[in-house]
Amino acid sequence: MKKAVFLLLVLSSALYFVQHSWFSATDTAQSLTKLNNDLKEMATSPHKDLYQEEIQKLAFRLQQEPYVQLNQRYSRKILTAVQTKNKTEELVQVVPNDLKSEVVNEESLKYTIQRTEQLSGSFQQAKIYATVNSRDKGVLKLLCREIQEQYSGYNSLVICLYRATETGIALAKGNNVQYSEQDIINTWLVFYSYHPVEGDYFDGEPGKYLKM
After folding, report:
1. pLDDT digit of tens for each residue in the chain (212 aa)?
2. Beta strand pairing status for 125-132 and 156-163?
3. 205 lies in the same domain as 112
4. What's the pTM?
5. Are residues 34 and 58 in the same domain?
6. Which of 15, 37, 108, 206 has the maximum number of C-beta atoms within 10 A of its C-beta?
7. Do 49 and 32 share a structural domain?
8. 104 and 22, same structural domain?
9. Does residue 158 contact residue 128 with C-beta atoms inside 8 Å?
């Protein structure tokens, strides 16, 4: 009888150990999976989130509630000083067959990178703000891809292009000035973002949602 009781206790202990180990392993695997998924989501923001950040910053200047100034969430680490390293570059207009440009001429496209920012965190994410002398969407799309190649070391990239006007330069530099809705709509030409999973996204009318 004692032997039978002893064997029963041994079997019960073994069964408890196996069940406990299995559940622990399962919980650990689930935790690791969740952690990996969270890290992937943290690594880069999708296009819509990146675009929403820019809309919210501009809407704050229009004093539209309930938006807040998202600049405070990031350490605004400047990658290039505008005063010393601001560089006007030229890109010859080359329109491939798959891009139909409404305006094609022999003039060079001139653009100036007014400001660059690196978002805080361990992942390589940057924002480029530039002014440009063209409004042709086909050419501006080529320009965005050209800039994206220049900053290919970043996992996630946002490019905002503005007209080369007084308002456009002020917006690109992030000057703390209040602008009218129409000024922003007329001046903000392009929102472009590159995401390693979703690829690239181009919006040639980024100010349209400010009307909503």
Report:
1. 655 555 555 556 655 554 555 444 455 445 545 545 554 444 445 666 777 677 666 665 555 433 333 333 333 333 333 333 344 444 433 333 333 333 334 358 899 999 999 876 656 889 999 999 999 999 999 999 999 999 988 888 999 999 999 999 999 999 877 888 888 889 999 999 988 888 889 999 998 877 65
2. parallel
3. yes
4. 0.57
5. no
6. 206
7. no
8. no
9. yes
**Per-residue three-class SS string for 136-177:** CHHHHHHHHHHHHHHCCCCCEEEEEEEECCHHHHHHHHCCCC
- In this structure, what token pair is assigned to residue 203? 């919006």
Residues 70 and 97 in one domain: yes
In 3D space, the residue among 82, 58, 53, 57 whose CA is nearest the CA of residue 173 turns out to be: 82
Cα separations in angstroms, 116 against 25, 41, 173, 176: 46, 23, 9, 16
On whether both 3 and 63 belong to a single domain, the answer is no
Q: How far apart are CA 195 and CA 44, in angstroms?
A: 7
Q: How many domains does the chain have?
A: 2
Which residues span the domain enclosing 88? 44-211
> What is the torsion angle, in degrees rounded to the nearest 10, for the CA atoms of residue 119, residue 67, residue 211 and residue 143?
0
Pick from 147, 141, 135: which is nearest to 95 by CA?
141
Rounded Cα distance, 179 and 1, in Å: 91
